[in-house]
Design a protein that fits this description.
Length: 102
Amino acid sequence: MLLRLVYGARFTDLSPFRAVRRDELKRLGMKELTYGWNLERLMRVAAARLPSLEIAVGQRRRVGGVSKVSGNLMAGIKAAWSISTTFLRLAVELRYRETSRG
């Protein structure tokens, strides 16, 4: 919802698999190394106005057991904190970059 409000981008989830051309990915200047990586990628793609297409894919039960994040309260809190701070940091950074360009 926040991506839609700030950038007008419509993404349905923070899927870990998204295809992007290598040259474009390098140009985005990704920095996040934690749970916020997916969000950073989406925010930078939206801010750069790169075309994106979401394709729904099927899913199945985890073969390896319980999720490392949703199956653990502390891991879930850490992920939520990381994603929230990533959004705030990037919103400010990308806004500043946009206004300094002109």
